[in-house]
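Predict both folds.
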Amino acid sequence: MKGCGVCHSDLHVMKGEIPFSSPCVVGHEITGEVVEHGQHTDAKTIERLPIGSRVVGAFIMPCGNCNYCSKGHDDLCEAFFAYNRAHGTLYDGETRLFLRSSGKPVFMYSMGGLAEYCVVPANALAVLPSSMPYTESAILGCAVFTAYGAMAHAAEVRPGDTVAVIGTGGVGSSCLQIARAFGASDIIAVDIQDDKLEKAKTLGATHTINSAKEDPVEKILEITGGKGVDVAVEALGRPQTFAQCTQSVKDGGRAVMIGLAKAGSLGEVDINRLVRRKIKVIGSYGGRARQDLPKLIRLAETGIFDLGHAVSRKYTFEESGKAFQDLNEGNIIGRAVIEIV
């Protein structure tokens, strides 16, 4: 392993807010080098990913064979959710990690990438060009991957669309850059921290709203001439911002939810407005590894997506605990990455 992003999804697991098998190794936003192939690796995979290959990994690891994967919907892979998210294993029902002292299993959140070595299904990997840095490129596998899935597949952002992003952390700030790359006109960033909003301006936001100081829905309506935006994205996973997201879109607009919440959290929506004004509420967990990850690498390689601006802090492997403490306390603007070796 070379780099691993610091993500709120891991923090949710660590705090017990999302049920997951324990003990486990977190870390799902990775770059690294191929050092070994599994016993049953096919010849085409070995040719695509030879020993020594520089790679980036997507956190949704498609099996490639289930009903959804066969249709290209890697983000809905049945095996990923049935085995990894439900039980912390790979798709033979087994983890690859065990305690040395007792042999008891240690489970894997995605590939369990916050480690010196990890085992990753080949379908989740794409080759990383030598021109791209290991550390900054790690965020392609979750923060950028999640943003791209939301913008390309859920929201279907088109040139000229107006977009609001509620919550400008690692994923939300990536949404700003993807919206800009897709040709959105007005891009509105909403947060409660002025420093994050200042950063948002460098990533594509044309307007910023501090929702601790003014009503974000009213302000979005003011910016858009009373109409609302074509697309609103909620990147926090909170009932209040869920409601703000649905209230911010115009008639026929798309409200896209990408923020994970504490288990059991519920969001409210005005049913009559939803029905009468044809509001679309769409959940989006991530992108589609086999088709999207190579595109994201190319966007970053050409500078259309600026990895340098997206990554604001770096930690050593030994500082992993501090990295998640800083994340928990809201001290990270954008995305942080842990440098492993």
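Second protein follows, with its predicted structure tokens after the sequence.
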Amino acid sequence: MAHDLTTEAPAESIRVEVARPAEIKRATDAARRLAASLGFGSQDCDEIVLAVTELATNLTKHTRGGTITLRATDGRAGIQVESEDRGPGILDVEQALTDGYSTAGSLGTGLGTVNRLMHELEFYSLSPTGTRIVCQRWLRAKNATPFVRWLEFGAATRAYRRQPENGDTFFIRQWEGGALAGVIDGLGHGPFAQRAAQCARRYLDQHFDQSLENLFRGAGRACSATRGVVMALARFNAAQHTVATASVGNIETRLIGGADRNVPVRRGVVGLNAPNPVVAEHPWTPESILIMHSDGLRTQWAWEEFRHVATSAPGIIAQRLLTDLGKIDDDATVLVARTAKP
């Protein structure tokens, strides 16, 4: 029988036994108090509480009960939430993350919600039965202070000519000393392709400061109830003068400047058991230009054909590439990045 108590565990963690629905509130109240004490704002606290609610509800609906353990993270400021059940555990973790999947007649959005709201999420099988879920949410600095934008971005996108919905999208986020940009293409065309692409984009927006490997893994989980997407990402680091690239599927990435090069593509579909992306780091100079585009553009083109726009703003370069290379029978998107002019 589970103890009807909230107890202090080692390392200043808070452990809550959860076996009945009435005990869920003990876990969520403890999570809200700890998150607020660590400096999370009210909206962040609400989202952390929602994630804990889903984990605790999972213990009461799908297992023989277990514990929710809360503590401050080591190193980077944040909160860690652990859920450990007493069996039978989760047989297929990735399937359980799919929105709409349930073994108890519920809406089936619990673990998918945790994946979206928490910044990192890991699963561990316990012997002989049971599952341990560990997730973290980081305390991010508020971006109230203006900063110098050291990169310029531009993008151009359009839908397949017979569809009002665009199955392509792009992502751009810049902060002090860093940036993340990418192109996402939902499989096929129309509203279902658009839904898949926007699902991946929302995940990036909430998790932009995570590693490229974690972004692909989390986006894959988020998109598992959709058609899936192909995606390429680039993370820029001002202090190290580098750009790291990663892709799954046929999004083309080119780096112009110095030795022009195409970034290798790993085949697969994010959301449909995609392989891990190959992450490569490249030097970034004041003369560098990064170009990403979906397969709605012809791939057989040479930068020499467009050198007359090389000094133009990234948005103009992107529009020129889309106009000259875009196919009429597919969604098409181009993203361009370069160092900002003084």
